[in-house]
Write a structure and sequence with these properties.
- The complex is a heterodimer.
- Chain A is α+β, with helices and mostly antiparallel strands.
- Chain A is built from five helices and eight strands.
- In chain A, the strands form four sheets. In chain A, strands 1-8 form a two-stranded antiparallel ribbon.
- In chain A, β2 and β3 form a beta hairpin.
- The longest helix of chain B is centred in the last third of the chain and has 21 residues.
- Chain B has 26 helices and 17 strands.
- Classes of the chains: A alpha+beta, B alpha+beta.
- Chains A and B meet through α1 of A and α7, β13 and β15 of B.
């Protein structure tokens, strides 16, 4: 199962703490351009955390002329910094804009779903999950939204029956 | 470009921009300067004192406009998003500053600079582009005349980069409205002191920033441990949940409850229709979602949506000050017009507090028959006429018709119109008083009178006596001041409270962090600053040293104002607040006992009681001997 970093854009508030934490975790400094995740605000109202999805058909891997990108046993795509020459072909190939060049080394950097940032999310929406888990989360949300009234009615009915009995 | 300082936290460079010569220059920040004034408000205060004297007209090329961040801006301290913009104020003619959050301040540091210091005046509209350690002035001909959101969009488009950050003025700043704001990240407002007009006078439309440089951390091994503790404290505070839910919008309800919600140009501290403009009403009908600025755990920002009608818009939500200024202050209970009026003020780049307050002054004068349709060009200024309020916001920003007079601010507008309208101006030192009815909270009255930038609730931000923070008062100020200090209606010990708060606020604003989390909720205090400063910057300053830095900045601000002629007589409030008892509500019968509190305050400050001048020994103790010397040269005789 492929795992990746995800935050619900309707819950994420765009504080970018995860970016700062990520850069600190990997580089011991505070610099969003060294973060492996990026928070993009789509004004007004949506904050989207962009991070590598470790696609099954990974175009970045295919695009790399140096074979610097490979998938490990956990299904995570890893950059071999020794091989990477910073050509940026992977950046061009990624449909999500989720792989970047390090501002100093110019080597590719990307989220490896380590999950370090998730425990610092103040609204608790950042998590590492699989597509299957994401689907369940979304189902849950749809149910909560769409069926809220129905559930209320059921509850009221139930309470009435209880009282009557 | 210059060499970087070795301190953590700082970017290490000032950026000097000469608009007249269209030149930019990077200058390394001196280590001693950093330790003496910290950053943000402290840096701006010192630079302004040195470069702008009493001879300078605020709208002339000689004024200096300073953007400044602090060593914590862009770090992981909770709410580390802040920057200050300072200049001599065209509204008050004295020390002027405004603060904002968002993502612009951190980005300036990632671009390699702590401050931007603007001098001179360009012959043509320009904007400054700070790009990763470099800076250049670019043509802003096409941007001139556009509102703040359009300006931000256009700059992003022209650089093909929606991630760069923009701080800019709208039409109000271009037209030199005396309470024009600077807006960053679409709707974060550095609003007060008319700072936007100073940018307009220099023909500086915007400052766009981006960068990929580090904010380095001095002690990385200990950093996360310290930060985790701060974050935990912040999230554990019961205030955080409420902030997330309402932001500051539900202060309408809380202020109403203690009679502290100004209505009808501060005649009263309660508003009968308060529920219609409340935080609850916004949450139930217009809230889209809360939103955070950089590294913010409180997320008091939010988006609101008005779906249809003349006031339809989607964007930033007003916070309490705007609800009060455009709402209760003007007797206006039409919430959609308040939301839209706030949005419009952001687009034009107007300070909502001064805007609402100036309109409410005109409304009271209208009711008294002192301003008529002849003055307003036929606009009806009946209390609560929301259509007129919106119309006036347009007219103020463009300086059209009656709006041209209002654009001068209520003090100057009343001077011009005369006819006794002067007594309805709710100001201190020519700046409009914020939405904090001081008869219901005496410390706020004193804070308004002593604040360096003229009427202001944030310079001292005394809030612990508002509603039952006695335990925190005991910890922060001392048990010996209870219960009086905790009683919002008792003037006793408020001089001590305001003095301590002004010092602390100066430290907070100089570090580049928010007053939420430090002042209210009272979670983070000096000891947290000491620890975090050590692991971030790499220097151990003691609590005593931080307190002294705060005091030094406040005295420096006072020195600036003293040089401009400010004395005790100017640390004043309108007669309405000091002599006319609050007419109704929970604080009925109260007045602000200003003189008594001022005596205590000056005593605490080491300033002379009769004049409000800092004593020589006070300035000397704070290492401000050069200020003593400068004031002596200006023929100002300081007391011993």
């Amino acid at each position: 199962m492929r795992r990746f970093l995800y935050a619900d854009p309707t819950v994420c508030v765009g504080c970018r703490i995860c970016e700062a934490i990520c850069s600190f975790h990997w580089e011991k400094t505070l610099n969003p351009k060294k973060a492996r995740n990026r928070v993009r605000r789509v004004d007004p109202g949506l904050d989207v955390v962009v991070a590598c999805r470790n696609c099954d058909q990974a175009w970045c891997v295919e695009a790399c002329p140096e074979e610097a990108l490979r998938r490990n046993r956990q299904g995570i795509i890893i950059v071999d910094a020794k091989k990477c020459r910073g050509c940026g072909a992977c950046v061009e190939a990624c449909p999500f804009g989720a792989i970047f060049l390090h501002p100093e080394t110019q080597k590719a950097i990307k989220c490896v779903a380590c999950g370090f940032c998730t425990k610092y999310c103040p609204v608790n929406t950042l998590r590492i999950l699989t597509e299957e888990e994401l689907a369940v989360l979304k189902q849950q949300k749809v149910i909560q939204h769409e069926c809220a009234n129905l559930l209320d009615e059921l509850r009221v009915e139930g309470e009435t029956k209880e009282r009557e009995s | 470009m210059g060499r970087k300082a070795s301190l953590g936290g700082y970017a290490g460079q000032h950026l000097y921009v000469d608009m007249t010569k269209e030149q930019c220059k990077a200058v390394p920040i001196d280590r001693q300067f950093a330790i003496t004034y910290l950053g943000g408000q402290g840096f701006a205060s010192r630079i302004l004192y040195d470069k702008v004297g009493p001879q300078t007209d605020p709208l002339s090329p000689e004024n200096v406009l300073i953007w400044a961040t602090g060593p914590f801006t862009g770090t992981l301290w909770p709410q580390a998003s802040r920057y200050v913009v300072a200049a001599k104020s065209p509204l008050t003619g004295i020390f002027g500053e405004a603060h904002a959050a968002g993502h612009w301040g951190p980005e300036l540091k990632f671009a390699g600079f702590d401050t931007i210091i603007i001098t001179g005046r360009a012959k043509r509209p320009l904007y400054l582009f700070v790009d990763n350690g470099t800076a250049k002035l670019l043509d802003a001909k096409d941007l001139w005349g556009h509102n703040t959101n359009e300006t931000e969009e256009m700059i992003k488009e022209s650089h093909y980069d929606p991630s760069l950050r923009v701080s800019c003025i709208g039409q109000a700043g271009e037209n030199l409205v005396r309470f024009a704001a600077i807006i960053n990240d679409y709707d974060r407002a550095a609003a007060r002191s008319g700072i936007g007009a100073v940018a307009g006078s220099k023909h500086l439309k915007a400052v766009a920033v981006r960068g990929s440089q580090d904010i380095s951390v001095a002690k990385p091994d200990r950093y996360l441990e310290v930060i985790e503790e701060l974050h935990k404290k912040m999230l554990d505070s019961p205030f955080t949940a409420s902030r997330a839910q309402y932001g500051t919008t539900n202060l309408v309800e809380l202020m109403q409850e203690i009679g502290r919600l100004p209505s009808y140009n501060m005649r009263s501290g309660v508003f009968a229709e308060y529920q219609k403009i409340s935080g609850e009403a916004i949450k139930n009908h217009y809230l889209v979602k809360p939103r955070a600025d950089y590294a913010c755990l409180q997320r008091c920002g939010r988006y609101t949506l008005v779906r249809t009608g003349p006031y339809a818009y989607c964007g930033g939500s007003p916070e309490y000050e705007s609800q009060s200024a455009l709402g209760s202050r003007c007797g206006n209970d039409n919430l959609e017009s308040i939301l839209y009026g706030h949005h419009l003020s952001n687009l034009y780049g107007l300070d909502t507090i001064s805007t609402g307050s100036t309109i409410s002054w005109a409304m009271e004068a209208w009711e008294e028959g002192l301003i008529t349709a002849e003055d307003t060009g036929g606009i009806d200024l009946e209390w609560g006429n929301h259509e007129s309020i919106i119309k006036l916001i347009h007219m103020i920003a463009h300086r059209k018709g009656f709006g041209d007079i209002l654009a001068e601010g209520s003090y100057r507008a009343a001077q011009r119109i005369g006819r006794g309208t002067e007594k309805f101006v709710m100001h201190c030192k020519k700046q409009e008083i914020a939405g904090q009815e001081p008869r219901a909270q005496k410390s706020m009255g004193l804070a308004t009178a002593t604040a360096a930038r003229g009427a202001d609730h944030l310079y001292a931000f005394p809030v612990l006596d508002e509603v039952g923070f006695d335990e925190e008062i005991g910890i922060r100020y001392g048990q010996e001041y209870l219960p009086e200090m905790g009683d919002r209606l008792n003037p006793k010990f408020k001089g001590i409270m305001v003095k301590e708060n002004e010092d602390f606020c100066a430290v907070v604003e100089s570090l580049g962090v928010c007053k939420y989390g430090t002042l209210i909720p009272p979670v983070l205090f000096y000891e947290d600053i000491v620890t975090t400063f050590e692991v971030t910057v790499g220097l151990h300053l003691t609590e005593v040293q931080f307190r002294q830095i705060g005091e030094r900045i406040v005295n420096l601000n006072r020195g600036f104002n003293v040089r401009e002629g400010i004395r005790r007589k100017d640390d004043s409030l309108p007669r309405r607040l000091t002599h006319i008892p609050a007419p109704e509500g929970p604080s009925k019968g109260q007045v602000v006992e200003l003189d008594q509190m001022l005596d205590e305050y000056y005593e605490q400050r080491g300033w002379q009681l009769e004049t409000g001048l800092p004593k020589i020994q006070t300035l000397h103790r704070l290492g401000l001997d050069d200020v003593i010397e400068d004031l002596r040269k200006q023929k100002i005789k300081l007391p011993q």
